[in-house]
Design goal:
The structure holds two protein chains of two kinds.
Chain A: H1 16-22, E1 41-42, E2 45-50, E3 53-58, E4 62-64, E5 67-70, E6 76-80, E7 83-90, H2 91-112, H3 118-131, H4 133-137, E8 142-150, E9 155-161, E10 167-170, E11 173-176, H5 180-190, H6 197-214, E12 230-235, E13 238-241, H7 244-261
Antiparallel strand pairs in A: 1-4, 1-7, 2-3, 2-11, 3-12, 4-5, 6-7, 7-8, 8-9, 9-10, 12-13
Helix pairs in contact in A: 5-6, 6-7
Chain B: H1 9-26, E1 30-35, E2 38-44, E3 53-57, E4 60-66, H2 68-88, H3 96-113, E5 120-126, E6 135-139, E7 145-148, E8 151-154, H4 158-168, H5 175-187, E9 198-204, E10 212-215, H6 217-225
Antiparallel strand pairs in B: 1-2, 1-8, 2-9, 3-4, 4-5, 5-6, 6-7, 9-10
Classes of the chains: A alpha+beta, B alpha+beta.
Pfam families (chain A): Proteasome (PF00227)
Keywords (chain A): Cytoplasm, Hydrolase, Protease
GO molecular function (chain A): threonine-type endopeptidase activity
């Protein structure tokens, strides 16, 4: 490939999607089609604020209609050192959006020589969701949650989005996807400002447990195969994924509690 | 109508090369050298904001000397080419050799066809997974590419710096020893360089996916004192 060189008036700057457009590599949005293509869908994700930052969590199941298409999909991913994205919706466009978003953050950082602010990152994602609108009209809806640690304000922050790219900052928690009603309710009841890490992790795990319990498209912890939800914290130290051993212990506690009730 | 004087092509090329070399010689030098755990890049740069050394991709760094706006343009083109290739194919397919070739094509084209050649010398460095296959590509203003094994010296006074570095460099140096050698070679016997005049970065094999790491003045001072 030749070196991409642009004249000053035609330069894409630090935007990677714009660069893709200039070199003719941008993804083509579908302009017509049926409403149900039967593509895999990713489901419940939650995020909540706690004392040190943000916890993000998502189940691992992807479904196509009534079938489970993947058992170990990762819907909560690190975007860069201080932020993460959780995605619910059509798996294909969602994964592509995450890939582009991660690339864009890194591309900006390298071209400009400095990090994008957390608000700037949230805004970038908003534009990507908006550009997916034509595909969303065809049923390929992608709705992310964005969370991160704002190093300028020294606090964890959360955003959720709607299909049109609308961006809403949340103070306490967010839930998205098919099991979001159940997961959100669990968090809503127990959430209070100033949760510590352990409480926040338990709450996120519990929320996904209840969502999996009531929503067939959300996967619960799979002790048989050793597949647990993706849970991560984002604090001043950056993104940190919670280990499966830790999660296994937390889910064992929840399971024991459920058994003791019967 | 008056005819322009005939100028021999050899003369045109020589004039252009002299022009570029003069521009480059005015700037301060930089060196890149292999050490036991990667590649260290050390530049003499009094500015703390206008960088000579920067990250291109996971395992690839860029360094330029000469005219800032020109090598910065090359740096951005490199980041774009690398990110595009990684997006289109895979992160594993981005390599320093093809980037160096791209740069060489571009600089060669500009040298022969444009009004003025670029007054830059650049380096594309790639750290390998093992400690024997690290790559240093040194590219000149006219598109000449040199594949260097041990270290590269770019910019004014390169011969003297090279000679000094040749004495201190050895296979398997620690980072601290490599930095001391590099700073000693850049400064020469007659002056001292403070950490504030230095820009230091490493491509370290143990830094995770993104090997590039810029070292702060404090870290550099510690390494030089060790």
């Amino acid at each position: 490939m030749p070196m991409p060189l642009f004249t000053p008036g035609n330069d894409p700057g630090s935007s990677f999607p714009e660069l893709l457009r200039r070199v003719g590599l941008q993804a083509v949005a579908p302009t017509s089609g049926t409403l149900d293509l039967g593509v895999p869908h990713a489901t419940t994700c939650v995020a909540l604020r706690y004392l040190d930052g943000v916890v993000m969590a998502g189940d691992r199941r992807a479904t196509s209609g009534n079938l489970i298409s993947h058992r170990s999909m990762e819907k909560v991913v690190q975007a860069d050192k201080f932020s993460g994205v959780a995605i619910a919706g059509a798996a294909g466009p969602a994964m592509e959006m995450i890939k582009l978003f991660q690339l864009q953050l890194e591309h900006y950082e390298k071209v400009e020589g400095s990090f994008l602010s957390l608000e700037g990152k949230a805004n970038q994602l908003s534009m990507m969701v908006r550009s997916n609108l034509p595909a969303a009209m065809q049923g390929m809806v992608v709705v992310p949650i964005f969370g991160g640690f704002d190093v300028l304000r020294n606090a964890g922050r959360l955003w959720d989005y709607d299909v049109t790219g609308g961006r809403y900052e949340e103070q306490e928690f967010v839930a998205t996807g098919s099991g979001s009603l159940h997961a959100g309710t669990v968090i809503k009841i127990a959430h209070r400002p100033g949760l510590i890490r352990d409480e926040a992790l338990n709450l996120a795990c519990r929320a996904l447990w209840e969502a999996a319990d009531a929503d067939s498209a959300t996967g619960g912890p799979d002790a048989l195969r050793g597949i647990y939800p993706v849970v991560a914290t984002i604090t001043a130290e950056g993104w940190q994924r919670v280990g499966d051993d830790d999660l296994a212990a937390r889910y064992a506690t929840i399971a024991a509690e459920m058994r003791s009730r019967t | 109508m008056s005819m322009p004087y005939y100028v021999a092509p050899e003369q045109i090329m020589k004039d252009r090369a002299d022009y570029a070399r003069k521009g480059i010689a005015r700037g301060r030098a930089m060196v890149a050298l292999r050490y036991d755990n990667g590649i260290a890049l050390v530049a003499e740069n009094p500015s703390n904001t206008l960088r000579k050394i920067s990250e291109i991709y996971d395992r690839i760094a860029f360094a330029g000397v000469g005219k800032y706006n020109e090598f910065d343009q090359l740096r951005v083109a490199g980041v774009r080419a690398a990110d595009l290739k990684g997006y289109q194919y895979s992160r594993d397919d981005v390599d320093a050799r093809s980037l160096a070739n791209g740069y060489a094509q571009m600089l060669g084209q500009i040298f022969t066809h444009e009004m003025k050649p670029m007054e830059v010398e650049i380096l594309v460095a790639e750290v390998a997974h093992d400690n024997v296959s690290d790559q240093l590509f040194h590219i000149l203003y006219d598109g000449t590419v040199m594949d260097e094994r041990r270290f590269s010296v770019l910019g004014g006074d390169a011969d003297a710096i090279s000679a000094r570095l040749n004495e201190s460099w050895a296979e398997g140096l620690s980072l601290s020893a490599a930095l001391k050698g590099a700073v000693g070679a850049l400064s020469g016997p007659d002056r001292e360089l403070s950490t504030d005049d230095l820009e230091v970065a490493v491509l370290s094999r143990t830094n995770g996916r993104r090997c590039f790491l810029r070292l702060s003045d404090t870290e550099v001072a510690q390494l030089l004192a060790a």
